[in-house]
Amino acid sequence: AARIIQNMDPTADPCQDFYQYACGGWLNRHVIPETSSRYSIFDILRDELEIILKGVLETSDQGDREAFQKAKILYKSCMNESLIEQRDSSPLLEALKMVGDWPVASADWNETKEPSWSMEENLSIMNSRFNKRVLIDMFVWNDDRDSSRHIIHIDQPTLGMPSRDYYFNGGNYQRVREAYLQFMITIAKMIREDKNVSKDDSFVQEEMAKVMEFETEIAN
C-alpha cells in the first residue's frame, strides 16, 4: 500500500488528470535509462533478478545438478570474451557447414551442395541443434483439448524483422528495412572474406535483394 501511495500524486485532481494522479509519483522518481526504451516495475524486477542470477552463475559448480552445471558453462562461455575474439567467425562457419552451407557465401554451391541438399533435413537441424525456426515453427507443447498430454504444434515462425509493418510501411519502417538489407549484405561479404571466396559485391547484393523479396512475400 505504501508503494502504491508513493507512486501516486495526491496533489493532482483526478477529475482533471487521472494519469498524473495515479502515476505522478512514479514519473517524478524514475527516469527512463538511456539503454532502455521503457521502464516499469517489471523492468526493475528483471534488473534485480539479473543481479541475483549473476551471483548464482559465478559460484562454483561443484556438487551442482547437471542442469545448473550447464547453465554455468553457458554463462562462462559467453563471458570469455578473449576466447570469443580468438575463435572469430569459426563457430559460425562450422554452423553453416551443418546446414549445407550458404549459397551467397559459396563460389559453386549450385554444383557442389544443391544436388544433395534437403530443406526438410536442414530445417530440422536448425530447429533441434540451434533452436532456430525458419519457414515453419514446430514445437512440443500442451494439447489445448487435453491438458494431460503434449502434442506437436506446427505454426508460422517470427519474421526476420519484428512485424509485418517493417516490410511495407514508409518512414522509419523504410529506414529500418534499408538498414536490414544492408546488414545482410555486410554479413555475407564478411563470411565470403573469411572463407577466402572471391569478392563479388554485385552478386551478393543481387542475392540478398532476392532474400529480402522472399521475406516480404512471406510477411504478406
TrEMBL record:
Pfam families, sorted: Peptidase_M13_N
The UniProt entry's coiled-coil ranges are none
Q: Name one GO biological process term.
A: protein processing
Protein's name in the database? MMEL1 protein
Q: Which PROSITE patterns match?
A: NEPRILYSIN
| InterPro entries to which the protein is assigned, alphabetical | MetalloPept_cat_dom_sf, Peptidase_M13, Peptidase_M13_dom_2, Peptidase_M13_N
In this protein, which residues make up the domain named Peptidase M13 N-terminal? 14-220
- Alphabetized GO MF terms: metalloendopeptidase activity
Cellular-component GO terms for this entry: plasma membrane
